[in-house]
Amino acid sequence: MAGSADSTDSTDSTDPPESTGSNDPSSVGVSARGARRGLLRRWGEACARRFAVVLIAWVVAVGGLVVLHSAYGGEYSDDFNLPGSQSQDGLDVLQRHDPAAGGYSSQVVVHDGQGSLDRLGPQMASAVSELGKLPHVLAAQNPLETPPPPSGAPDVGPLSTDGRTAYITVRFDVRPNSLGSGYLDGVDVAVRPLRDAGAQVDYGGPLGELARPAPSDGTSELIGFGVAVVVLLVGFGSVLAALVPLVSALVSVVAGLSCLGLLAAALTFATVSPTLATMIGIGVGIDYALFLLTRHRQDLMDGADPVAAAGHAVATSGRAVLVSGATVIVALAGLWVSGVAFIGLLGVAAAVTVLTAVLGALTLVPALLGLIGRRVDRLRVRTPVAETAGGQGAEGDGGLWYRYARRVARRPWWFLAGGVVTLAVLTVPLFSIQLGHIDDGADPTSFTDRRAYDRMTDAFGPGSNGPLTIVVDQSGVPTSDRASVQGDVNRALTDVPGAAYVTPLTPTSDGDVLVGTAYSDSRPQSADTTDLVNRLRDDVLPQAVSGTQAQTYVTGTTAAQVDFLDVVSARLPLIIAVVVSLAFLIILVVFRGLLVALKAAALNVVSIAAAYGVVVAVFQWGWGGPALGVSGTVPIESYVPMMMFAILFGLSMDYEIFLLTRVHEAWLRTGDARAGVAHALAITARVITCAALIMVSVFAAFVISDNVIVKMLGLGLAVSVLIDATVVRLLLVPAVLSLLGGSAWWVPRWLDRVLPHVDTEGEGERAPARAGDADA
Fold first, then answer.
1. Is 304 helix (H, G, I), strand (E, B) or coil?
2. What is the pLDDT at residue 574?
3. Cα(662)–Cα(394) distance, integer angstroms
4. pLDDT in tens, 63-119
5. pLDDT at residue 5, as a whole number
6. What percent of the chain has pLDDT over 70?
7. Hey, how many other C-beta atoms are within 10 angstroms of the C-beta on 684?
């Protein structure tokens, strides 16, 4: 870099390259970008110069948010109900005609290892009475007073044949898991007589989910931060340089989680939301700060003033952070295309910490850099390396990454084939994916819902954990024909494939509705149970009432989960199409190249497909699941692929934009497409490698969570980032760009005229002047 602020040394990748043809921005675009450049530079310099004000503002803001969250923050709960679905319509019918039999059910499982529960008749009656008095409880069923099943029928409860195990069915007018953990205090008081008498009492279903320990991500966060410290120390060689991204990410995540908790007071966020927000927030928070810090340190090495260097970092890399953050948020917003509020709100939860990470990068990071000043490399563990050293050496005769990229350019087909084969092998398990809902049997045995699940399975069979309520609305059937309808339905429900037992349907008190219960011969998460629900809905029940005005429904928690699965499965292709289209449009607008945009969209799809394959192999096939603490094999949670696709699309844009920006700059400056790839890889490889290692470690650390869905997301995100930063960035992207050459950046003139101009890395920004030079 030249010693004057007015220098336009061509080796500075931030200098505006000479370009011709369709890549030239209009004069209006240049003017607009110039105004934005000035604003971002002034903003960064102001934060660095007045670092005390910015830091105090952050402390006050975060402290206030934490206090507000502790006072007014809401609870998290899972709501899989879909308005207009058959399960919800059936529930509505039942609640209108027999409120006590409707609502949302949960089980309190009682086991007496000393003998028959008959000896605890008074305690059982007391517990059932007190449960019935709790707020929002419609009814509580005493298992000792319930008639046993007919002779020859399977033992499906509520009292086991040996009399040692029973379950109290409690029905609520709201979802029990939305009542807050404090509600369990009343439940504990109600069942205390049973526990005092020596019985073991556990909560199943939604009550059990409410009783799960509050998710604690502290260990995962410590592991992620610990690995990040090591990577940053090795990558930058400075303790202070390593601390800046960590402090920025930590503060941003705390602020984001507090905001999310306040939103949870008004909206129903899934229980996995805070963990998901933490994973994403830490990952992008460190990445964004890392990009700014890298640019800032290079300017300091070139002799720039710390304040001016911070302003230049915000004006250049800060613009890339804005584009990347906006891309992630747009991708997460695309989840609303599913039409399912549960999934859309998961996107909102992740977007909250992405937003605070962007704010932290653009305000807190320059303030910290202003506070540190020139001392950023003072506490060294090794000699710091300049960002552009590889690039300068690369255009000469040195640089490991430069030599590697030139080797790729000489044999692009070999490297392309290697990358494609690797991804193809990893993708194979995807073709056997089974979407579903993970039941309580996959939870740790320390959870009360898992203990209740095991008790129910041992005493009544696996299907008892997911009973299906059959509802037949015969209000439109003449009274004289209702007995015939009841008989036809009961006969049709005899020996249904996949059903362990179906209770005879009985009318409600008004005679308008028939109600019964079906038990699968498989556990709730099994594909056989899903098939049973669909068989009852699509074939058995409609055929039984054909020719009448009766309407049939299958409802209950398990049926609602099947509805949710059907909707998500049907809309997943739409989400993928929207996200891929966004990837194509963003790259097209930013880099103005049709083929490079197609390449980016295609590589996103294949790399995420490979990550899906790994998740299927580990969790569904059981290849390593037990080592991760998963009990047996489980289906892939229905919304996990949708979440992974949206999140990973946004995250992959970080590295895509960072790498392609440098490739594009070098190509416009030199006209040599292959040399441009080598130059860009030499400059960006170290930063991308550090950023990817940090994000992989952050995501992978969450596989130690007790929540299987969190394990699934953590592993899937970690594997995908690893694939993206290695196979895609080091094999496929250099090989494809070398094969395409200059045609990668071609765009029709008519399209070039209508596309907006986006300056992602501040190409028009001049580097800050060295200390002592004339002010730019």
1. strand
2. 87
3. 13
4. 999 999 999 988 888 877 788 889 999 999 998 988 877 778 899 999 998 888 999
5. 35
6. 89
7. 25
Which helix H or strand E contains 371, and what residues bound it? helix 365-372
Q: How far is CA 142 from CA 69, 167, 416, in A?
A: 40, 8, 67
- Dist CA 672 CA 463 (whole Å): 66
Q: With contact defined as beta carbons under 8 Å apart, do 451 and 205 qualify?
A: no
Q: pLDDT-based confidence at 299, cuts 50/70/90?
A: confident
Distance CA 471, CA 493 (A): 12
Whole-angstrom distance, CA of residue 215 vs CA of residue 705 = 8
CA distance 254 to 353: 9
Q: Is 135 exposed, middle or buried, given 0-12, 13-18 or 19+ CB atoms closer than 10 A?
A: exposed
Q: Which amino acid is at 438?
A: I
* 8 A C-beta contact, residue 668 and residue 18: yes
∠ at Cα 703 (700, 706), nearest 5°?
Answer: 155
228 closest CA partner among 625, 695, 548, 601: 695
Q: How many CB atoms lie within 10 A of CB 265?
A: 12
User: Do residues 578 and 444 lie in contact, with contact meaning Cβ atoms separated by under 8 Å?
Assistant: no
Residue 162's CB is within 10 A of a number of other CB atoms, namely 11
Residue 247: per-residue pLDDT: 92
- Rounded average pLDDT over 355-377: 92
- Give residue-wise pLDDT tens across range 539-562: 999 999 998 999 999 998 899 999
Angle, CA 275 vertex, CA 719 and CA 694 arms, to 5°: 40
The per-residue pLDDT for 542 is 95
Predicted local confidence at residue 383, as pLDDT: 64
- What sections of 23-135 are H helices per DSSP? 27-49, 51-72, 86-97, 121-132
Q: What is the pLDDT of residues 477-531, one digit of tens each?
A: 898 899 999 999 999 999 899 999 999 999 998 889 999 999 999 999 999 999 9
Mean pLDDT of 130-138: 94
Whether cis (ω within 30° of 0) applies to the bond prior to 158 is yes
- Domain spans, the chain: 35-79+216-387, 90-211, 401-431+594-749, 468-555
- Tell me the C-alpha distance between 240 and 375, whole Å: 8
Instruction: Give the separation between CA 618 and CA 633, rounded to whole angstroms.
Output: 9
Name the fold adopted by 468-555. Answer: Alpha-Beta Plaits (3.30.70)
Q: What's the topology of domain 35-79+216-387?
A: Multidrug efflux transporter AcrB transmembrane fold (1.20.1640)
The residue whose two tokens read 């720039």 is: 304
Q: What are the helix and strand counts (H, E) for the chain?
A: 26, 11
CATH 1.20.1640 fits 401-431+594-749, yes or no: yes
pLDDT band, very low/low/confident/very high, at 177 (cuts 50, 70, 90): confident
- Say whether 626 sits in a helix, a strand or coil: helix
Residues 405, 286: Cα–Cα separation, whole Å: 27
Give the model's pLDDT for residue 652: 76
Q: Which pairing describes strands 506-507 and 513-520: parallel, antiparallel, or unpaired?
A: antiparallel
CATH placement of domain 90-211: 3.30.70
DSSP-assigned states of every residue in 268-298: ---TTHHHHHHHHHHHHHHHHHHHHHHHHHH
90-211 and 468-555 in the same fold: yes
Beta bridge partners of 552: 472
Strand order in the sheet with 165-172: 137-140, 165-172, 104-111, 200-204
User: If you average pLDDT over residues 643-652, what whole number do you get?
Assistant: 81
